Request: fold
Amino acid sequence: MIGALPLAAIPPEDEALRPEIRAFLRDAVADIPPERRARSWMGFNPEFSRKLAGRGWLGLTFPREYGGAGRGAFARYVLVEELLAAGAPVSAHWIADRQSGPLIQRFGTEAQRRFYLPRICRAEAFFCIGMSEPNTGSDLASVTTRAVREGDGWRLNGAKIWTTNAQHSHYMIALVRTGGTAADRHKGLSQIIVDLHAPGVRISPIRDLAGDAHFSEVVFEDVFLPLDALIGEEGSGWAQVNAELAFERSGPERVLSSAVLLDEWARWLREASGVGNASEAAEALLGRLLAHLAVLRAMSVAVTGRLMEGESPVVEAALVKDLGTEFEQLIPVVVADILARPGPVPPGPLMRTLAYTAAMAPSFSLRGGTREILRGMIARGMGLR
Amino acid sequence: MDSLLVRSAEELFSRHADPTAVRAIRAGGSPEVLWGELERAGFPDALVPEDAGGAGLRAAEVLPVLMAAGRFAVPLPLGETMLARAALAAAGEEVPPGAILLGEPLGGGARVPAIGAADWVLLPGDNGALLLPMAKAAEDEGAGSPFGRVLRWPGGAGRRLAVPDLFPAGAWAEVAAMAGAMERILESTVRHAGERQQFGRPVAAFQAVQQQISVMTEDVFAARMAAQLASVPDGDGVAGLNPLRVAAAKLRTGEAAVRVSAIAHAVHGAMGITEELDLHLLTERLRTGRVRFGGEAHWGGWLGRRFLAGDETETLAFVRAHLGPSAPEATA
Reply:
């Protein structure tokens, strides 16, 4: 059975980053209306990413020799939770900063590190992740996109879908088959960096239910990639992807996706009703959400603490994500209900923030591994399978 | 220190608070042996300041002991006695011998648990609290239920003492006991699912059952984290308790208790409803703990009002300032 999560605290030297970040954000997001800020880590704005890069806040955890700040996971935790709480548009650099960069740092060659990491830190290289395919969703090992060795490179054919920001990104790190067949499952998979401007790459944005086009279908037709497009070891794609996911599942982005809505509602409650005049139901609901937020944040920080100690708390991370996304999905449901009570007319921006968050909330528990997959991982951790 | 303390508590409870002993005390049997062992180990004085003869521990340090008591569904007010003795000692009052229940003021009387023996009831009032002898209590006959009984002291017995309001402290003790009980319920549910065979295989082999136990695991982890958060001693209450932390933890643990109990009973099937299985000792501990010293509605409203009247206008800022994983983080 999995052990308890001991409390972990953010070290003071990392907390020290917070005031500067908060001061920056007060100006940087002041003019963005809440219904835009509600897009959270789906809000795409390269200029904002460049501003962060200018402050040295991209690639915070990357080594200094590659343009990073050489800080630890807790420094990034502080940065990310402030960015998300404020609803800053972080999507352009998000994947590169969180996932692709660390992956290249860990599994890449020296040449790959020297090429990609400084560009990520300067907001000049945006990444997307090619995992799902038209016939591959939760069953990720069934990918059929294939890279075949040909002369001094790889020939890539296949298609990826639901790829966030593919149409805006410079590179995709794709999970592809370099050997065997779909029946070989985890064996024969590799990760490959695709230059999305290479001939034969066709990207078709897909409009989502909120009218945004944040994801795309990407088709590869005889795309030729150099040999050094391979990242890590040939055939080790599955293990590499899983190492990547442990870092992805327990961060503040699994707790704060509805933070803008929660704060807008709380602010309106304070302003509209005046102190002492909010309804008892609204007060109790607010208290309930605060209690959940406090416990989830402590769990998320605790998992980060374990990661910092070099452990791989995959099951604990899955558990934080499942609970955290449940909380994120609860917020629009209960706020909609409480605002449906008779009373003062809620402001338009609050209602539009609610409408956006409520409509997109189902995706919170799909991205990064569905509930069912996560619960399967927890069950395995508990020795049930 | 921590693990040594909890190991000795676990050992004491396995020897003197096994399900047979717990059932006997619940049925009205004498708690003398178990309580005597607890006194001998010094647990009831754990929070009493060292200069007053106690161990001078803080909330976080005794949490594992109270969770262990929860795992065994110990039907005695160990946490409450710890808190009451600490508060009395800190106020310079004499600490009486024996177990002390914390009463919840109700209609001029004190609501106390239906099960559990004690020598005293400490009842908060307008100016301090009353220390009331159990021996002189009269039970409000119409008001008793498995959730608790209401006691009155017709003669107006008791001494008025200058101790702070222990209502949040009582809630903290329930949080600790519930978190411990949930740990044990999870262990027993996983074990049962692995042993019980249906359709020719253990029920744990069914995905529907696995997913439910995963949800239960999440809530047990959340409850345990809530208990740890509530025990960070950055408040000015007894043992360093901070009512804001306790409020959040009591609410979250109460919610977890509902879901954990429901899934545990679902997985155990009809067997879990029998007197013979120990499961009900633990799920009953959750049912009573959830509503004692304020449930979700009470603490939710209380916490919501504190936020609305406070300085932080953002929820994350409020959580960082008051409900973070360590004593006050730097605020900006």
